[in-house]
């Protein structure tokens, strides 16, 4: 968008810069006005983001210490969400519920952005807790899967900006959480990341696949998903599964903050709507198949062979732990 | 497609070469015949390209000097379309109308291909002219947006081959025009290119996004659109937003010509239908949502906050120009 | 998927490894159980793969010598399918029928995977045999195209793992066959690969395009398809049209085997369903447009200009062979 009549050649070099609103008032007005650009189906979204324009002074009040998720806001107004369910942040119903509630808190409190990380020195998240699948109470199992879907809707489709500081292994569901963010900085060294569901005889749901296909190429996603590939940090960087390699957790968080700072002068509403228009298709896909997706998971759990397989897996883990 | 019975091992090395028709008569026949490969919905397209088989001798008659677009055909039979609305080729209704008409001329006159460039030494096109959006006459605003859609349909979906010689900055609508071509050579140095709409509080329409997602990866497109990224020439080359870096405008045009020469021995109709089959999805998407897309734009303009934001922006530009 | 309660920090480093089932019994159970993850529309698929869990002892019985396709199983239990229709493996109805039948044999006999290669020292496959298109019997032509579709459905949508050892030129249909596999190792040197249909005045069907767009980027696919690009081996590796460069045929086959070995500890059913979920969209697209796709091909053959073009092409080939 340029304004030709009042421009002369001398202002051309500052073309891009001049597009940045110079006052916060102007930014707010521009953001507000952009509301009209959305399609009707974006109506609910509009309400969710309508107040997301600036960091509110009340934001530090959001800090909370839950048993499984620590949510604080640092001096820059960035929310840090730390998963802290030892030893490996396995995603059980309780942890998923706390993540879901914490995502609501970040949305309500108008944070400038959120960084997802882990309290473990070696694991970002080990993925879904198989104890939620072994001899399950079906009512709880349904709540478990529905909550996982909720977490993905809230994280992948958040109006606030998101980044993952991946400070440990991130298999399966751990990889999904990080891919649902807008940016990934991962601590270098021995850690690995990937959707390795097939190794356990499991098929990743279509929305896991969709999320990966919008992070790396379809070709690389097919290779990774079928071979249960756990990427080293270098491999992940090369195919853009992660965006940067960090030296340690603090560095990963700093790199995420540097990413979030890019939005400082971008009107938040225009940013949020742009993000959601880009992510509209996979979100709509799960919205329309949500119930079928739950039923698929429950049928899977009811299969005696699945239960037998899980029992053997749990026995193997116990023996390993006993050594 | 090979013919086994009459081949022996000695002709194998010239396999690819033998696929190239050796006479223009043959090429014409092959092109004609390829008509039957298209689907019924491609019927209108077929008519549009049915005469696009060879450079007609009449092609130099196309040369014309409009006030805002210069259209000439060079000695190689390539049409050069130069945007010349000083100072920064802001896309107002008049310029868009001339571009639209010029694209019709290129299509009618069976050019061997078209190169889009700018008369400005520093700006390819600054994008949409915000004076078309500030306190607009609604009838004119509707014509403005409809004409922009027309230009995209005609350029992105052209049956003739297209390339952009990007000899200056190309933000927002300027980036869109270049991405709608089939090839991009950009003059190196300080120039930048990108869809930076969010910086102004604006959301790029879905068809801008679709066009970018078919040029660079979805991952890179999301990053670029949400952060309003203006790519340096080196960054643009790395993620394939542009295809080549040129030393100056003449070099950029030469590189575009070299690209267009690749089609010399390709039957034009098969080439055109292949291009349009590849681009069918985004074109169909806008065709089916065209009216909604216009209404979205008009609603946006009717919002008082939008008008307020535009006024502030124009004031800022005026003050900058006055210094 | 991790099990937190029984884990401590010492077992974290073996996180990925611990996901690999340690006994074949467990793998079988896990595979079986994964059946429940599929959607209803995957029902037929389920039957096709339900027995694909392990290499059956009977697998060597599959070896057969057809006139046009040689199918053997090596000591590692991998099926090697060799196209052997001299001189250039042009795909006529007879060859396509044998390929189709051989793919059924591999599926029935629970092979650990299949490698597709050629008996020719210089051509993988020259693509469709134009003698099937020149003055055709329409009933045979319909069978020809339907069989080509069948081969693609069976190869692109196979439940067993596939790789192509590309030991020679692979234009048009030859490129399609290799892209339909899950991995490509190509012998280096002078050989080329690509969908070069436009050079003959032909438009590649949409499912050829879909297959390429899921192998390389859409941007590169458009460039390649419109320019009839035959990639050198180095170019093909760079844009990921192939995965590896081999020194000779034996090396190409070894590289394919190394790829197939990655699936040794992956439960085959979970692998198969994951592959098919990833490939679901293009498969569904052709399933729903299959009849229209046949009619398009037949209309193409009925066009007198097409027949004239083919006659000229055949004459040119005959003259070349006579020299």
UniProtKB/TrEMBL annotation, chains A, B, C:
Pathway: Lipid metabolism; fatty acid beta-oxidation. One of its GO terms (cellular component) is mitochondrial matrix. SUPFAM superfamilies: ClpP/crotonase. InterPro entries: ClpP/crotonase-like_dom_sf, Enoyl-CoA_hydra/iso. It is found in: Mitochondrion matrix. It catalyses: (3Z)-decenoyl-CoA = (2E)-decenoyl-CoA; (3Z)-octenoyl-CoA = (2E)-octenoyl-CoA; (3Z)-dodecenoyl-CoA = (2E)-dodecenoyl-CoA; (2E)-tetradecenoyl-CoA = (3Z)-tetradecenoyl-CoA. Its main location: mitochondrion. The keyword Lipid metabolism applies. It comes from the Eukaryota. Pfam families: ECH_1. Keywords: Acetylation, Fatty acid metabolism, Isomerase, Lipid metabolism, Mitochondrion, Transit peptide. One of its GO terms (biological process) is fatty acid beta-oxidation. One of its GO terms (molecular function) is delta(3)-delta(2)-enoyl-CoA isomerase activity. Key enzyme of fatty acid beta-oxidation. Able to isomerize both 3-cis (3Z) and 3-trans (3E) double bonds into the 2-trans (2E) form in a range of enoyl-CoA species, with a preference for (3Z)-enoyl-CoAs over (3E)-enoyl-CoAs. The catalytic efficiency of this enzyme is not affected by the fatty acyl chain length. Homotrimer. This is Enoyl-CoA delta isomerase 1, mitochondrial.
């Amino acid at each position: 968008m340029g304004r030709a009549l009042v421009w002369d050649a001398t202002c051309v070099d500052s073309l891009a810069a001049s597009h940045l609103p110079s006052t916060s008032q102007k930014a707010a007005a521009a953001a507000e006005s952009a509301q009209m650009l959305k399609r009707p189906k974006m109506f609910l979204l509009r309400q969710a983001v309508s107040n997301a324009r600036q960091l509110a002074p009340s934001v530090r009040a959001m800090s909370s210490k839950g048993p499984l998720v620590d949510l604080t806001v640092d001096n820059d107004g960035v929310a840090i969400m730390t998963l802290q369910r030892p030893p490996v942040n396995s995603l059980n119903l309780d942890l998923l519920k706390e993540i879901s509630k914490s995502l609501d808190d970040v949305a309500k409190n108008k944070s400038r952005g959120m960084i997802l990380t882990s309290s473990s020195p070696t694991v970002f998240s080990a993925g879904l807790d198989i104890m939620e699948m072994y001899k399950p109470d079906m009512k709880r199992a349904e709540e478990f899967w529905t909550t996982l879907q909720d977490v993905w809707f809230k994280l992948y489709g958040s109006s606030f900006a998101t980044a993952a500081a991946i400070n440990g292994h991130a298999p399966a569901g751990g990889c999904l959480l990080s891919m649902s963010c807008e940016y990934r900085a991962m601590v270098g060294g021995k850690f690995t990341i990937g959707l390795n569901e097939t190794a356990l005889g499991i098929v990743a749901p279509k929305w896991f696949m969709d999320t990966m296909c919008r992070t790396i190429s379809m070709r690389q996603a097919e290779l990774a998903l079928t071979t249960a590939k756990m990427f080293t940090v270098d491999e992940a960087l090369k195919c853009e599964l992660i965006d940067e390699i960090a030296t340690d957790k603090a560095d990963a968080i700093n790199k995420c903050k540097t990413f979030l700072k890019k939005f400082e002068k971008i009107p938040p509403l225009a940013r949020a709507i742009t993000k959601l228009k880009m992510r509209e298709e996979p979100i709509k896909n799960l919205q329309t198949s949500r119930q079928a997706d739950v039923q698929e998971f429950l049928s899977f759990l009811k299969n005696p062979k699945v239960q037998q397989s899980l029992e053997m897996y749990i026995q193997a883990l116990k023996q390993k732990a006993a050594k």
